[in-house]
Amino acid sequence: MSLIRILEENANFNFTGIINILDQKTRQFLGSVSMSDGKIAGGKWKELMGMSALIEIAYNDQISDNLKFVNEPEVIHVADIAKLIGVQDFKKMASEAYQKILSSQKLAPPKGLRLIVDAEFIINGEDPSALEFKVLKQITDDPKVETLYEHIKAPKHQVDMALIRLRKNRAIKVLSNK
After folding, report:
1. Could you tell me the strand order of the sheet in which 39-45 lies?
2. How far apart are CA 2 and CA 52, in angstroms?
3. Neighbouring-strand partners of residue 43
4. Distance from first CA to last CA of the chain, Å, rounded?
5. DSSP of 69-138, one letter per residue?
6. Residue 25: helix, strand or coil by DSSP?
7. Paired residues of 100 in beta bridges
8. Structural domain boundaries of the chain?
9. Exposure string (b/e) for 49-65, b if CB count within 10 Å is 16 or more?
10. Is pLDDT at 78 greater than 90 in this prediction?
C-alpha cells in the first residue's frame, strides 16, 4: 500500500502516532512520518527531517515498491510538532516536488564531466544557498561530477537542482569530459 493511501486512511480515523518506514526485504528502519489527529506533524528520512524528509519519503515511495509502512499509535508531544499539514495539501506538495525532481534528472550533468568554479561568480555573484555552497566547495576539492554525489550528504535530485542553479547563474563551467 502506498504512503498516500495510508495517510488518507489515517486521516479518516484522526490517527495519532508514527508510521514507521522499513525496507521491505531487510526490515531495516529507513524513516518515519508522525501524525496528530489525522494531520501530518513531521517526518524523518535518513539524515533529513521535516518537510524535506516528507518529500523524500513520498519520492522514494513513487520510485520503489520496496517500502513497508507500519502504523504505531503513539502520543505525539506538542513540542515535537513544527506545523500540521493536511493530507490533501501534502499530496499536492509531493506531486509538485516529484515533477521538479523528474525535470531536474533530465537536466543533470553527465557523470563523466569535470567542473570548475568561475572566479567571476565568487567575486561578483549572488550568495549561494547552503547546498550550493557545499557543491562549490566540493568542486574545488574534486571537479568530477561522479564524486560530487558521493561526498555531499543530500539527495541526488537536490544536488542536481543545485548544479542546475549554479550553472544557470554562471557559477560553474565545464572543464572537460573526463
Report:
1. 48-49, 39-45, 29-36, 17-23, 67-73
2. 19
3. 33
4. 43
5. EEEEE-PPPGGG-S--B-HHHHHHHHHHHHHHHHHHHHHPPPTT-EEEE-HHHHHHSPPPPHHHHHHHHH
6. coil
7. none
8. 3-106, 108-176
9. eebbbbbbbbbbbbeee
10. no
Per-residue pLDDT tens over the stretch 15-39: 999 999 999 999 999 999 999 999 9
Distance in angstroms (rounded) separating the CA atoms of residues 58 and 111:
26
Residue 2, C-alpha cell as written in the block: 502506498
Distance CA 42, CA 2 (A): 18
At 55 the three-state DSSP class reads helix
Residue pair 67/30 in contact by the 8 Å Cβ criterion: yes
Residue pLDDT, tens place only, 136-170: 999 999 998 888 888 998 888 888 889 988 988 88
CATH number for the 108-176 domain, one of 1.10.10, 3.30.70, 1.25.10, 3.30.1490?
1.10.10
Buried residues in 114-132 as b, exposed as e (16+ CB within 10 A): bbebbeebeeebeebeebb
